[in-house]
Design goal:
The protein is mainly α. Helix content is 66%, strand content 3%. The protein has nine helices and two strands. The chain has a two-stranded antiparallel sheet with strand order 1-2. The protein is globular and about 55 Å long. The termini are far apart.
Length: 173
């Protein structure tokens, strides 16, 4: 397995998990928050996809699908177009709602396609390319991609846990 294949496998696992987390849930289930300051499944999946879109597009030097494919308009969220959910307040988390799981999976699918297109051409030289000099040491493409893979894996796991809470609460009623 080469580096490109390894990264494709990592991002592919998140891509496989997203539909399983949201399918069959209504908008209230997707928006459920265990308490007033917790994240919802919708917010977690939207955020992990926004971060992947934002960060991979920057590394790949392409436009984000959020804007180029019209996802910002489709979601219609009361947020700035550049917002990825970083440091959202409780009110901002609550504002991230969707009318169906299909919107979340559709956006994630589009971002995954962009990610795969870039990752298919990744080699060791590309992974060593510095993409962010604001840090010490400067961030390389490889470090940024691992950071995104880690973040998306954690958030899809959190969303799966929340789904379990939602399903268990329905069985107890």
């Amino acid at each position: 397995m080469n580096t490109s294949e390894l990264l494709l496998e990592a991002f592919g696992r998140v891509h496989e998990a997203v539909p399983a987390v949201v399918e069959g849930l209504g908008d209230d289930d997707l928006a459920h928050r265990p308490d007033a300051d917790a994240n919802s499944i919708t917010w977690l999946v939207w955020h992990l996809t926004r971060v992947q879109d934002d960060h991979v597009a920057a590394v790949a030097d392409v436009e984000q699908v959020w804007t180029t494919d019209g996802w910002f308009s489709r979601f219609g969220l009361p947020l700035d177009v550049a917002d990825t959910g970083w440091s959202h307040s409780s009110d901002q988390v609550a504002a991230v709602r969707v009318s169906s799981a299909d919107l979340l999976t559709g956006y994630h699918e589009a971002v995954h396609r962009m990610t795969v297109a870039y990752l298919r051409g990744v080699d060791d030289e590309e992974l060593d390319r510095v993409v962010d000099t604001r840090w010490d040491p400067p961030v390389t493409a490889g470090v940024r991609l691992i950071s995104v893979a880690e973040d998306t894996m954690m958030h899809v796991g959190q969303a799966a846990y929340l789904r379990g809470l939602v399903e268990r609460s329905k069985r107890q009623v």
